[in-house]
Amino acid sequence: MLVDEALSLFVGYQYSQNRSEHTVIAYQTDLGQFFRFAALDQGLEPEVLTVDLIDVYIVRSFLGVLAEHGLARKSMARKLAALRSLFKFLCRKEILPINPVQRVASPKLGRKLPHFLYLDQVEALLRAPDSTNLLGSRDQVIMELLYGSGLRVSELVGLNRENLDLESGLIRVLGKGSKERVVPVTNYAIQAIEVYLGLRSDKSKALLLNYQGMRLSDRSVRRILDKLVARISLEQHVNPHMLRHSFATHLLDGGADLRSVQELLGHQKLSSTQIYTHLTRERLKDVYAQAHPRAKEQPIPEG
Question: pTM of the entire structure?
């Protein structure tokens, strides 16, 4: 089967699986690039290349050329994923007997350390809302819960009044995969929530409302945070997840154990939480390099 025919068949299958237009176009682009490379490798025109001519060596050679051109590993992994999906589909349809991508290892992705805020930056943000009015008091609640309880923004906007147990200092949160967990709230957050709810006269079950009285959206929280960042003239892009990162980092800095932080964050795997220990180690190295005289001085060259 010609590669153009195989690609057309695969694209039709993707649409039948309700893949987004963006995903299908990305597949077409990546696969088209690979087929042009494979045709050149075989000394053929792309329109006469057939799928049975593709082998593991062509795939590895393709990845090697991408690496030589400095393509990011994440982009290489995406292109390889597109190839895997295509050839798995062709084998399932019995168009090919062997999947040439099966023995190709994915490029290892370096894990980025999460960005966080220092304590003085967080404190400035927590002081930024004007709690004397309804929307300002709501913004205070947002900040106290994002940082004080380490909530994801989706968890925050999904909170209902019935999820609050302010007397016990606990809230029930619906996290990823509809998994419920109970997290503590600070006295600052309890006070902020009580002030905010005291200013409201509506019957809505949602904890956080916009100016129209509707449940607040993820996007609205990001806009509110942008305004608070601008208000304190913080020269750094801040998103809601950075407050969650700061929550975890500051807990570990304060002596919290990793398992407890994992539970508070709602991470299924401990490895997801361990990234913060790498972060605190990097901070210690920076502090050491800047503060210790032996770390700053360079050895005198011999001779």
Answer: 0.60
Structural domains of the chain, ranges and CATH numbers in brackets: 3-92 (1.10.150), 119-290 (1.10.443.10)
pLDDT in tens, the chain (303 residues): 888 898 888 888 888 888 788 888 988 898 889 899 988 888 888 888 898 888 888 888 888 888 888 887 788 888 888 888 888 888 988 888 888 888 787 766 556 667 888 899 999 999 999 989 999 999 999 999 999 999 999 999 999 999 999 999 999 999 887 889 999 999 999 999 999 999 999 999 999 999 999 999 999 999 999 999 999 998 888 999 999 999 998 998 888 888 988 889 988 888 778 777 766 666 667 666 776 676 655 554 554
Separation CA 85–CA 302 (nearest Å) = 59
Q: What is the 3-state secondary structure (H, E, C) of 120-137?
A: HHHHHHHHCCCCCCHHHH
Residue bearing tokens 């996007």: 219
Which residues are catalytically annotated?
152, 176, 241, 244, 267, 276
CA distances from 221 to 34, 138, 205 (A): 41, 11, 18
Query: Is residue 38 classed as helix, strand or coil in its secondary structure?
Result: helix
Here the tokens at position 260 are 């407890």
